[in-house]
Amino acid sequence: MSSPEYPELYAAAHNFPAIDNHAHPLLKDKHRHALPFEGLISEAEGEAQQDSVHTIACLRATHQLSELYKLDPNTTTWSDIKTARDKIGYEELCETCFKPTGIRCILIDDGLVNTSNKLLAEEYHWHDRFTPSPAKRLVRVEAVAEEILKEVIIPHLSTDHLQVTPILDAFKSRLSETLTACAHDPNVVGFKSIVCYRTGLDVSTFSPPASLKFSLLDIFKVYKDEGKIRLAHKALNDHVVRTALEVSTMHRKPVQFHTGLGDNDITLVNASPSKLQPIIKAFPDATFVLLHSAYPFTREAGYLTAVYSNVFLDFGEVFPFVSGHGQRAIIQQVLELCPTNKILWSTDGHWWPESFYLGTIQARQALYEALADVVRHGEITEAQAVQIVRNALFYNANRVYALGLEPGISA
To answer: 255 phi and psi, to 5 degrees?
Structure first.
């Protein structure tokens, strides 16, 4: 290719080491075909997932993966990609995908799904083989809460007259104790909430005791009838989030929130980070990290980072779900208002090693192109753009999660 317009910015964007501040585990080798590969390029499920292969994002990913696997990018189809990856040993496949990324460290939410699917995935520390620094954990608070609910409910399954108050008190106490123990674990660098999926981001600053008791009674009934626990009761969900924020404030651990883009389990209108504003005000000393670019609510997230010192914005997951043009527009929206010392990057990599590859190379390309445009218009210098890249890819996350890492190379 011809020489880049801004060589120092290009070198930083494409080569500077990166901290992946939000990802999930890979599938185990023996389960590498357990889930549809189309999940790599879309949040869609069921029949809708089949339409994802017709998106610009998928066509672009096909082209990029064909180059990675040394296929002809002009003729390779999505089916060819799936066939090619099946012929590669799993360890080699993972190494092939991770080697070009420049990822220094991965922060892994290992509570992605329910117990049955979780058994399909590797432990978080298994991923250490692909990065210079060991992976760290993000504790999913709803998963912790569901396990505790099970523990406090099971001893009472045979009773006809449930005493709700002591069970609720036991749950509250154990939740706080468990999250505190997690905060003391040196491998845990933060918490993660999926309240966005369950009851929405309009987290209340107070849950009436009667509502908490009703929630617990309903959970008890469902578990007794079906043997399943799913935390999806607003009063209880909001209590779990507030407990996590209390613990995180005391122990200086950030809390990540899923915002915006997700599968159809989300009610999109309740996924806007603007709905978090009351709880952000209520916990001024807690650190909030808004995940996934908050897409399509990116500007709203940028506003929150601009007016609250304790709010940070992750520009992830949109790689590779959104087209290249869309990715550049998203980063431009992030840069409209968000202080550049509060921007964090992630792959949201999960299940397939290709998610880490595409999530990295596409983000690096979009970051260069978006910042090159700002430099081109004379709004900042190339040197300033280089520092923005280094902060966004490495230094901001290193500071926010207190990782104490060094990039190892300069660019």
So the answer is: -115, 120
- Dihedral sign (CA 328, 329, 331, 332): positive
d(CA 148, CA 170): 9
Q: Catalogue the E-assigned strands of 240-370.
A: 255-257, 288-290, 311-315, 343-345
Closest by Cα among 268, 334, 258, 322 to 22: 258
DSSP calls for 63-98: HHHHHHTT--TTT--HHHHHHHHHTS-HHHHHHHHH
Q: What is the per-residue burial (b if ≥16 Cβ within 10 Å, else e) of 37-58?
A: bbbbbbbbeeeebeebbebebb
pLDDT tens for 348-395 read 999 999 999 999 999 999 999 999 999 999 999 999 999 999 999 999
* Residues 290-329 pLDDT 10s: 999 999 999 999 999 999 999 999 999 999 999 999 999 9
CATH assignment, 7-32+49-400: 3.20.20.140
Backbone angles phi, psi at 175, to 5 degrees: -60, -50
| Encoded tokens for 279 | 């709880």
Cα–Cα distance, 237 to 243 (Å, whole number)? 10
Give residue for tokens 């696997």: 69
